[in-house]
Amino acid sequence: MSDRTGARQAAQSGGAEFLTADGGSAVALQPATPCKPGGDLKMRQILDGARQVFLADGFDGASMNDIARVAGVSKGTLYVYFPSKVALFETLIRDDRRRQAEQLFQFGPDEADVVEVLSRVGMALMRMMCSAAHLAHMRMVIGATAKHPEIGRAFYEAGPQCGGRRIGDYLRRLTAERRLVIPDPELAAHQFVQLMQADYFKAAMFGVAEPGDEAAIEAAVASGVRAFLRIYAP
After folding, report:
1. Gap between the Cα atoms of 35 and 41, Å rounded
2. Average per-residue pLDDT in the chain?
3. With the C-alpha atoms ordered 181, 183, 189, 193, is the resulting torsion angle positive or negative?
4. What residue ranges define each of the domains in the chain, with the CATH number in brackets?
5. How far apart (Å, rounded) are the C-alpha atoms in residues 179 and 194?
6. For residue 20, what is the DSSP state?
7. How do residues 59-76 score in pLDDT, each as one tens digit?
8. How far apart are CA 74 and CA 65, in angstroms?
9. Quick one: which of 119, 126, 193 has its CA closest to 161?
10. Are 29 and 15 in contact (CB under 8 A)?
C-alpha cells in the first residue's frame, strides 16, 4: 500500500492513526470533540479538518483553502488561529503526539511483572509506529523538516522526547525499587525503543516490509525486551 493510499484511507475514516488504550491494533484517531473543559471548540474543529487534509494530500499538497473547507470554517477564521500552514501542522503534530503519549505510556503503580509491562508498552508502541498511516506521517514530517526544521522539532519534542521521559519515569521507579540497575533511566528508555525498532520497523519505514505485520511486531518486541533486561537486570 502506498503512503498516499494508506493515508487517504485513514483520512476518510475521519482521523489519523492512533492506538486503543489497551494496546490493541492501530486504529483511527477520531476527532476529539468535545474538547476538555475550557478548550476551544473552534480550534479542535480546525485541527480535525487539517488532520484529514494532511493525511490525504501530504504536507506540500495540502492547502489552507482545503483545510478551511474540510474544517467547515472560513479562510479568515483559519488565519486568525494559524498564521501559516507550517504553524498549523506544528500544532497538529504536538496535539496528536500528546494524545498518543497519554494512551501509549500507562504504568500502574502496582504492576509487578516487569516483562509483562515492558511487553505491553512495547506492543502498543510498535503497533502504532508500524501502522501504514503512522509510517506515512513520519515520511511526511521528515520530508517537510528540511525546509521547516520547526516541524521536525515539534515531532521530536512531542513524540520521542516525551515518550522517553514517560518510559524513563517508569524505569526510574524500577531502579529505586532495585528491580533494575539503570544509571540513566531516560537514556535507557530511548535504548528500549531502539532495540524494538532494530529490524522490522526500519524495513517497513523504507518500504521493504509491509506495515502492520503482527507476527513481525511480536518478534521485535520480544527480542527487544529480552535484550533490554539482559543489559539492566540486577
Report:
1. 6
2. 83
3. negative
4. 114-234 (1.10.357.10)
5. 22
6. -
7. 999 999 999 999 999 999
8. 9
9. 193
10. yes
